[in-house]
């Protein structure tokens, strides 16, 4: 066995004053937020960018549009339940869906590493096209670039998506108020654990498949009950904890979660226990969290459970006046713990 070389190690959650980019800057937590706040936002400026949602809401020719872009660098390229191709489509469409938009068009940029097999590129492209067609979305434009061997990781994909926001729909964290009910659409932590299982060659007794899916149909079913949903998020990087903290901070409210009500499937709970992970911080790719006015919560929950992607939807908490900007969880033992914004990411390169 070769000697360990500490100088080659990387840390997903480094010191906050780290002078160079590290993996934690891509984790969707506090380091990512600081990168955007201190470098990108001042450089770009603009009222639209200041929305800082999963997608931007823009007006064009009298129509309200949702516009989003994303990049996908998941490793490995193929995993139980999907591939980087499915993930790129569904991840982008879900960003649009969180604005209540009906997705219409996608762009697709493939960055290919010299030496990657054409058969692999074809598999990924087929998966991308199939996922787009299944979602009723057209790939309208694209681009291809090739980088030298050793300067990529097989395939990276960049996307942009655009969709139309129906009249009367206004989903943003600033609408969240005390008394709102917090609902998740199903079991959390599945995607991140599925990626880790194949990346590290781990076996947990049963195969854990990614929950990668396009959530537009589920969101439409929810909006059909009432357009007065307050905010939606798909808890990807940083998991459910990151999404809840972002909403609490933007709305200036507190969030209380009943830990025993958060749906964590036993295989995910067991895997997280083995790996020393908290399921609240593990990424998802086919789940959403909704903040719903209390008077509509029961009807919205019923509509979610009637949809194939919301059968395990559950109420997990509520919005409160106390501790504004903070998320706390009531534990099964009767205690309370703070669910903080993650600094970096427990599982890098999961999307």
TrEMBL record:
UniProt-listed GO biological process terms: protein maturation
Annotated InterPro entries: HypE (IPR011854), PurM-like_C_dom (IPR010918), PurM-like_C_sf (IPR036676), PurM-like_N (IPR016188), PurM-like_N_sf (IPR036921)
Domain PurM-like N-terminal: 54-165
Gene3D superfamilies: PurM-like C-terminal domain, PurM-like, N-terminal domain
Pfam families xrefs: AIRS (PF00586), AIRS_C (PF02769)
Coiled-coil intervals: none
Every PurM-like C-terminal domain range: 178-323
Protein family membership: Belongs to the HypE family.
Name of the molecule in the record: Hydrogenase expression/formation protein HypE
Organism: Streptomyces atratus
């Amino acid at each position: 066995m070769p000697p360990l070389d500490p100088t080659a190690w990387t840390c997903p959650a480094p010191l906050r004053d780290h002078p160079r980019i590290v993996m934690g800057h891509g984790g969707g937590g506090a380091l990512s937020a600081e990168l955007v706040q201190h470098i990108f936002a001042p450089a770009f400026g603009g009222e639209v960018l200041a929305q800082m949602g999963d997608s931007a809401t823009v007006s064009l020719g009298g129509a309200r549009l949702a516009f989003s872009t994303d990049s996908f660098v998941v490793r490995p390229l193929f995993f139980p339940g999907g591939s980087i191709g499915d993930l790129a489509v569904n991840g982008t469409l879900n960003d649009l869906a969180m604005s209540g938009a009906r997705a219409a068009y996608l762009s697709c940029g493939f960055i290919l590493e010299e030496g990657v097999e054409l058969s692999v590129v074809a598999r990924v492209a087929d998966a991308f096209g199939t996922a787009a067609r299944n979602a009723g979305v057209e790939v309208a434009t694209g681009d291809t670039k090739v980088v030298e061997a050793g300067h990529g990781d097989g395939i990276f994909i960049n996307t942009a998506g655009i969709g139309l926001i129906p009249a009367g729909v206004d989903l943003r964290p600033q609408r969240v108020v005390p008394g709102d009910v917090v609902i998740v659409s199903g079991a959390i932590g599945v995607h991140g654990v599925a990626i880790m299982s194949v990346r590290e060659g781990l076996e947990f007794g049963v195969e854990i498949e990614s929950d990668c899916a396009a959530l537009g149909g589920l969101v439409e079913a929810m909006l059909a009950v009432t357009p007065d949903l307050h905010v939606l998020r798909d808890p990807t990087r940083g998991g459910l904890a990151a999404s809840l903290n972002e909403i609490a901070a933007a709305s200036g409210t507190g969030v209380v979660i009943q830990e025993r009500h958060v749906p964590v499937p036993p295989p995910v709970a067991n895997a997280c226990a083995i790996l020393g992970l908290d399921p609240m911080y593990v990424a998802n790719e086919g789940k959403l969290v909704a903040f719903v006015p209390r008077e509509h919560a029961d009807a919205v929950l019923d509509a979610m459970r009637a949809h194939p992607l919301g059968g395990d939807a559950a109420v997990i908490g509520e919005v409160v006046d106390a501790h504004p900007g903070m998320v706390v969880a009531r534990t099964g033992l009767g205690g309370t713990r703070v669910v903080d914004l993650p600094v970096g990411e427990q599982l890098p390169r999961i999307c």
